[in-house]
Amino acid sequence: MGSEREASDDRAAKTCVKMLLLLLLCSYHFTPARAGDADRIYKVLAAGSQKAEAACAEPQVTPSSSGATLLLSHRYGPCSPAPSTDEPTMAELLQRDQLRAEYVQRKFYNGDDALDQSKITVPTNLGSALETLQYVITVGIGSPAVTQNMIIDTGSDVSWVHCSTPNGSVLFDPVKSSTYSPFSCTSTPCTQLGEDGNGCSSSQCQYMVTYGDGSNTTGTYGSDTLALTTSETVANFNFGCSHKEEGFDDKTDGLMGLGGDAESLVSQTAATYGKSFSYCLPETSRSPGFLTLGAPNTTSGFVTTPMYKFGNVSTYYGILLQDIAVGGAPLGISPAVFSTGSVMDSGTIITRLPARAYSSLSSAFRAGMRGYPRAPTVSLFDTCFDFTGLDLANVSVPAVTLVFDGGVEVDLVYNGIMVAVGDGTTVTECLAFAATTGLSLIGNVQQRAFEVLHDVGQGVFGFRPDAC
Length: 468
Fold this sequence. Notes:
Elements: H1 2-29, E1 34-35, E2 42-44, E3 68-74, H2 90-109, H3 128-131, E4 135-141, E5 146-153, E6 160-162, E7 181-182, H4 188-192, E8 197-201, E9 204-210, E10 216-227, E11 233-246, E12 254-257, H5 265-268, H6 270-273, E13 276-280, E14 289-293, E15 303-308, E16 317-319, E17 321-326, E18 329-330, E19 342-344, E20 351-354, H7 355-368, E21 374-375, E22 384-386, E23 396-398, E24 400-404, E25 408-411, E26 418-420, E27 428-431, E28 433-436, E29 440-442, E30 451-455, E31 460-464
Parallel strand pairs: 1-25, 5-12, 6-11, 19-29, 20-28
Antiparallel strand pairs: 2-23, 3-4, 3-14, 4-5, 4-10, 6-12, 7-10, 8-9, 9-10, 10-11, 13-14, 13-30, 15-16, 15-31, 16-19, 17-18, 17-24, 21-22, 22-27, 24-25, 26-27, 30-31
């Protein structure tokens, strides 16, 4: 009897162990990949992030790749290498952001860049389309190298610098560079310009890039040495030498295109860096981030989701949303709502969602904010709250999680959820999302503090939290 009982107990113990292992394996299998703060119910404002400090914070930069890493700064913050005193108001910035969003969306629906002039209610002499491009890197161009402070844009392919109008901090003069060479009109780089080509002048290839507000740059398309860092250079880098601009009045020296087409920096350096790059956009304008060319040494710390292919529109990088969670609870939005994909864009500020998805998000968020007084609608934002007189360190808002293809969850930081829109007499913050009837866009506000990996070669996006 004793031996039978022992055998029975042994079988029961083994069964329990098997069931426990099975439970653990199932639990592991169904745990979604997640990037972000462990607090998935409520978010609070990081200490000091609302202070109007003039000094640039010490870099908290932790790139994951051993490729070329460049410091990246907010163009209007104290870390900027070319700070501007012409910072637009929030109303102007949101108007320009709407122009940017509509410009991108037109590329997908009819390829028409024509601008509805009736929608411009701010002066175009500020270069509205570029005002939404908020992040700057510093490189060297030419031999000897001339320092150039350039704004980055994942929605542009052609890079260019000022060559005839000294709008930037240092004017690039191709005559003074021993390695500069203009392209002939029949060269491959010239023919690759496509709609950005602008004919010939003195047998030299000409380009013209027009932005969402009608502002444009024209000049000669050529090549020169690009110094990314003191040890990383790109020979024969193709870029535009701008001789004429319309609608620009800016302190930066030009634009670095990070799009997916042949003319971009990413495509031109594919043999060296594998058509892979990442950036970390700082959570506030008082701290720096980074731009890195090259795949990470390890994907540890990243969650990854497939890139979404947009067919014939090769400049923009696509991603597929599946759902959104508020306060840890999925909204249960039908995947069909997001079936056309979303553009991951460094140049759009505010994320645009399909109207049905935005309505669900706004309703759930308002329900979680019942303890705070509502504020009136501000421009694009209809989900706003009045924090006047409150200790912002004690303000908590429902966590917002973007759920991408494959169940990948990205938990946004506080400053990726809320945006301050107060007029100086009130403290008003709004949910940093808006509805759209066009293609949805993931803006740079929602990308803050993550290292966002664009591994075009492997066809994946990656997200690593707390990277800068």
